[in-house]
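user: can you give me the structure for this one chain? tokens are fine.
assistant: on it. calling the predictor now.
[tool input]
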Amino acid sequence: MAGKLKSKPGAAPAETRQLLLEAAGAVFAEHGYYDTTVRQICQRAGVNVAAINYHFGDKQRLYTEVLRDCQAKALAKYPPDLGLAPGARPVERLRAFVRSFLFRIFDAGPTAYHGKLLTMEMINPTPALDAIVNERFRPMAEQLSAILRELLGKGASAELVRLCVGSVVSQCVFYHHCRPAMCRLYPDLKFGPAEIERLADHITRFSLAGLNDVAKRYKGRR
């Protein structure tokens, strides 16, 4: 178990709030939302058990804020247009999207629990999912849809674009969700920065090949 965070005597409300967010993120990632207790979080943060009620109202609201906080930090660190020049081509924007997506879910920084929390939320949803989908997932899905629509060409149906969005994203999340099994199948497999860059290149090339084929078949049926 990770070490207990230290709350300074007389800590400012903003500092205590941040301690709770960090502690809660780690504990939720370890035990899941439903099996995590308020007491566990407060013990990890080193604060009074009443602090969650004071700063967030209840465990559910704290959990929602944890998801918002780690998503915001991950997106600030690795935005979908990471490293892109103005007027970048759709192919370049697709790679930037894939690359930033991979770096977010494999980030080993202070909010390394980000990817695990989202995985757990997909498997066992909580009431927080609606807010996260509307605030975070939907804008990213719309951004990727716009990129793919350009690559597929004019007239691509909404269904085709949606299917292609799923195909691109599923390649990214597969490596995160199945990492324990993949690392057992391929013991030399690593997910450091260099490996993530190569994986982003592969997923982009593989996706472009599929998109080109799908676009040709779609045009042939019109």
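assistant: here you go. The CA atoms of residues 84 and 108 lie 23 Å apart. The chain has two domains: 13-57, 70-221.
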